[in-house]
Design brief:
Distance between the termini: 34 Å
Bound molecules: 6-chloroguanine
Largest sheet: 5 strands, parallel
Structural class: alpha/beta
Helix content: 25-40%
Shape: elongated
Strand order of the largest sheet: 2-1-6-5-7
Length: 226
């Protein structure tokens, strides 16, 4: 998989070199390139934003530098992802879809977002996804893109050492995961649930499923409501 990230803060993505994603890069399972949007500006101040038409607070990212960079990066089968608190919720299902793509381009907006015509223009020729991490506001798309890239890449075959760990995890059956325990058997007076020590695989499976359902009811009733 090839990933291009366009941002005014390229250093944000240094974190991708560590941990699992760093290993995937070392194994050449994925190639990630980070591009500075300001390199596509032509004025001496390298400005990427302007005041909003219609008035109001904040600044809007100008369409011109985006057009220059995206014309250069997008090929016929690229998927363009625009992180935005106004986008569709990014879910595990969405991560699975992104993991199928051969080429992802992430366009990180700052300020009050990118001139909407950029999304309108590229939607005529490409799949463009406006995606949000959740119902809160970040200063820009960078942190969201780090999360989306990690959630996507761990689903690319070969990135995770033990693919079994992908099967029984949160959001796999529309439920959150059951609680986990390891040694010691007693810690600060709290015992590991007896059933996990029993060796009865069927009882353990059943208990874990019950725990998943109960935890989902308690923590995420929204997941069960449809
Ligand atoms: Cl994708 N961007 C920004 N700026 N804020 C967010 C977000 C994205 N998702 C949740 N909050």
């Amino acid at each position: 998989m090839k990933i291009d990230i366009v941002t005014i803060f390229p250093a944000f993505f240094d974190v991708l070199d560590v941990s699992l994603i760093g290993k995937a890069l070392d194994k050449n399972l994925v190639e990630i390139s980070v591009h500075d949007l300001r390199d596509a500006t032509t004025d001496p101040h390298r400005s990427v934003d302007d005041t909003p038409y219609g008035g109001g607070a904040g600044m809007v990212m100008s369409p011109e530098p985006w057009g220059v960079v995206l014309d250069r990066l997008l090929t016929t089968d690229s998927v363009l992802v625009v992180p935005s608190p106004a986008g569709r919720l990014f879910t595990q299902a969405q991560a699975k879809e992104l993991a199928q793509a051969g080429h992802l381009v992430f366009a990180c907006g700052r300020y009050e977002g990118i001139d909407q015509r950029v999304i309108e223009h590229y939607s005529q020729s490409h799949t463009v996804l406006e995606l949000s991490l959740g119902d809160y506001v970040l200063n820009g798309g960078e942190v969201a893109v780090v999360a989306m890239v990690e959630a996507t890449l761990r689903l690319v075959p070969g990135v995770i050492g033990n693919p079994e760990s992908l099967i029984e995890e949160s959001h796999e059956e529309g439920l959150v995961e059951y609680p986990s325990y390891t040694k010691p058997r007693t810690w600060r007076g709290i015992e590991v649930p007896e059933v996990l020590l029993s060796g009865h695989h069927e009882q353990i499976r059943q208990w874990r499923h019950e725990q998943s359902v109960a935890r989902t009811q308690r923590m995420r009733p929204d997941l069960l409501s449809d």
